[in-house]
Amino acid sequence: MTNQPIIRFENVTKQYDDDPAVLKNVSFEIERGKFYTLLGPSGCGKTTILRMIAGFMQPSEGNIYFDGKRINDVPANERQVNTVFQDYALFPHLNVFENVAFGLRIKKMKGDEIAKKVKEALRFVNLAGYENREIKGMSGGQRQRVAIARAIVNEPEIILLDEPLSALDLKLRTEMQYELRELQRRLGITFIFVTHDQEEALAMSDEIFVLNKGRIEQSGTPTDIYDEPVNRFVADFIGESNIVPGKMIADFKVKFGEKEFDCVDQGFRPNETVEVVIRPEDLEITTRENGKLQVRVDSQLFRGVHYEICCFDEAGNEWLVHSTKKAVVGDEIGLNFDEEAIHVMLPGETEEEFDKRLEAYDEAGHEE
């Protein structure tokens, strides 16, 4: 085992004939033993990345490395990777044991060794004793566990999961999120999970790659992605956000809604046009005279654990508030927030541009 990334994409592009590129010069690294999520809307390129890692598809340009070795032309069956598909791809005419044992029989493993490995894999996914069950009589969650057991029984270095929870109902889906995360921790191998569900990605991942139109918009931990989005797409796609126009007055001071506020952001030019993000849960309702912002309540919905309140400030900006306090439509109220709740972005800035801007700022000798 080495310290280098288990997977590395180097300037990878995928294009079909004259169609627009599905992936556009994508580069990233995957470390061993972590839970990664490829997150983005339909058609953003996340499943294409998964299929390239699996060997079902080759890049049009660029290189893919596994443990430092180029694998562009390595067949799928020679890669130390197993895939759990969205529909699980189980054999309905085979029972649980034979489904899990299928790959081992292809390898011509001895019967007693197959039995031992299948039993261990089923125990890992909490299906001990289900060896003789028929697939057609199992629930969606049980079928998924069988698919995962079939993947791990081959002892791959990476398990790829292509939206495996999408067909489950909400309660079972939540349960399986916990189970998958715990399974990955127990196995200690690399999971790469594809989803368009941002809550799922935030709940399960060590690291997230947010994709849009064939490019990686941002990568990082769930906390990084949620608290420090680099641009409007990420801020809007990950959770709910209030995004309003603003102007950076100086380091740690920004203007929006016709007022100036202290913030924690720096590295912008004075009077630079920016976008300001404040999450709905970071806004606190108070009286109009005690609020940092004065707003008028336009609408309100009860969401069970909180009220979702839509307001407009005096500059015409819309504000979404998540609060346990009930408001009255038409009332003039105040909104308070901490300076740490304010996040400032440059319109259209990419993650690479974001990193370069802060690096240049640090090199210029600025300190917090």
UniProtKB/TrEMBL annotation:
Family annotation (InterPro entries): AAA+_ATPase, ABC_SmlMolc_Importer, ABC_transporter-like_ATP-bd, ABC_transporter-like_CS, Mo/tungstate-bd_C_term_dom, P-loop_NTPase, PotA_ATP-bd, Transp-assoc_OB_typ2
Pfam families, per the entry: ABC_tran (PF00005), TOBE_2 (PF08402)
ABC transporter domain location: 7-238
Gene3D superfamilies: 2.40.50.100, P-loop containing nucleotide triphosphate hydrolases
GO molecular function: ABC-type putrescine transporter activity; ATP binding; ATP hydrolysis activity
Keywords: ATP-binding, Cell membrane, Membrane, Nucleotide-binding, Translocase, Transport
Keyword Translocase listed: yes
GO cellular component: ATP-binding cassette (ABC) transporter complex
Family matches, as CDD domains: ABC_PotA_N
Protein's name according to its UniProt entry: Spermidine/putrescine ABC transporter ATP-binding protein
Originating organism: Pradoshia eiseniae
